[in-house]
Design a protein that fits this description.
By secondary structure, the protein is of the alpha+beta class. Helix content is 32%, strand content 17%. The protein has helices spanning 10-32, 35-38, 64-75, 130-143, 175-179, 200-206, 210-215, 232-245, 249-261, 287-298, 311-318, 384-392; strands spanning 82-89, 92-98, 100-104, 112-117, 124-125, 266-267, 284-285, 302-303, 306-307, 331-332, 337-343, 346-355, 359-364, 369-375.
């Protein structure tokens, strides 16, 4: 019988090596989720001369570990295309972080433009979150007596467009209908890709007479009865405010909203060739200043003891007015969304401004909290709600 040569017992050595390697990998894995090894260390937001009082997460009863985990998830790319996360709790800015991201690139297939290292002074394109700012301007215009009521007919402020009535019921559209996205006018903003030249908002933006383009659309539902997302009706509201006040939207917003908040680092966009201010989106503003706007609503329209927006308008405009339907948040007010967060069986009610790509201002009255996100998830999933439900709200102690 042929003898088989004796072999060195390598199996035991391999076991030892594998065991050591496993312990090393476990150690590395544990270190990778800690602030020290990942390069992330929570720091209390910088106290600047901008009206914000800052504090630590623990000072306002937030679990620092969970918020640190959120930052580490973003650092690891598990939540992608996030530019900033800010948390205001109990009147204090307690969390503020920025990441490298992309400016909006309209001509790019993925809409990702120039790479930017975002910081507290970098302006972000807020896209449709701008609509909630326009809601505030309408409320201010009413409070100042420039507009009598949101129940006013739009044509009370559109003398040069009377010929578009055409006796089809268009003359019954009110300011309120536009605030609720319920004008009843035909529009294809969600049926057609934004890259398609047939998209109504693209045609509107590029039109020499965009308001006439909008008001010439057929009336397909009775005004005020059915939600349909139509950004151009927010531009219509901007024209109404400008006509009623005798000021442009940039000037009116500066005098009555932004200057009282100490906000100077922002830019409205102008539609060309019409020259009207773009109110359906695209105001560039810093996340810190977005947080101020959210806090203004949390604080019933007051900033540092001064009433900037009437408390009645804050309450009325953020109350649920109409149900958007399937695949939308839980409700809609006057250019503000309603959203209920379910965390561990508890429902947290909120209202929020939302913009394409992950621009959000979330106001949670019962928690005395405002959360701000900015990002560039233009063709990818925006994880804002997931970050709130999995990390921020569970951090409440």
């Amino acid at each position: 019988m042929k003898m088989v040569p004796w072999k060195k017992p390598l199996d035991f050595s391999i076991v030892i090596i594998i065991g050591i390697l496993a312990l090393f990998l476990i150690h590395c894995s544990e270190d990778s989720t800690s602030p020290d090894s990942s390069g992330y260390q929570y720091i209390v937001p910088l106290s600047a001369d901008d009206g914000w009082e800052t504090a630590s997460l623990s000072e306002v009863g937030l679990n620092e570990e969970l918020i640190v985990n959120l930052a580490e998830y973003i650092n690891a790319g598990l939540f992608d295309h996030i530019h900033s996360v800010l948390i205001i709790k109990d009147d204090k800015l307690v969390f503020e972080e920025y990441w490298t991201g992309n400016d909006f690139g309209y001509l790019r297939p993925d809409y990702l433009g120039t790479s930017i290292e975002f910081d507290m002074n970098t302006r972000q394109n807020t896209h449709s979150a701008t609509k909630s700012i326009v809601s505030a301007l309408v409320g201010i215009a009413i409070n100042e007596g420039f507009i009598q009521s949101e129940d006013d007919l739009i044509f009370d402020y559109l003398d040069s467009y009377y010929d578009t009535w055409k006796n089809e019921g268009r003359e019954n559209i009110t300011i309120k209908d536009c605030l609720m996205m319920a004008s009843g006018l035909e529009w294809n903003e969600w049926e057609v890709s934004v890259s398609n030249s047939e998209h109504d908002i693209i045609r509107f933006n590029q039109n020499t007479f965009p308001i006439r383009y909008l008001l010439s659309k057929p009336l397909v539902t009775e005004p005020g009865t059915s939600f349909y997302y139509n950004g151009s009706t927010v531009d219509l509201l901007g024209v109404i405010v400008a006509n009623a006040t005798g000021q442009s939207i940039p000037d009116f917003s500066r005098d009555y909203l932004f200057a009282p908040l100490g906000i100077t680092n922002y830019t409205w966009q102008t539609l060309r060739p019409s020259g009207i201010t773009c109110c359906h989106g695209d105001i560039y503003i810093t996340p810190r200043d977005l947080a101020k706007f959210g806090y203004l609503y949390l604080n019933e329209g007051n900033w540092n003891g001064e009433e900037i927006i009437p408390a009645e308008w804050v309450e009325e405009s953020t109350r649920n007015k109409i149900i958007p339907g399937v695949n939308w948040p839980d409700g809609y007010g006057y250019l503000w969304w309603r959203k209920n967060f379910n965390v561990n069986g508890r429902i947290y009610e909120s209202f929020k401004a939302m913009g394409w790509g992950g621009q959000e201002i979330i106001v949670l009255n019962e928690l005395n909290m405002v959360i701000v996100f900015t990002g560039s998830n233009y063709v990818t999933y925006s994880p804002c709600d997931e970050m709130v439900e999995d990390f921020i709200l569970p951090a409440i102690q």
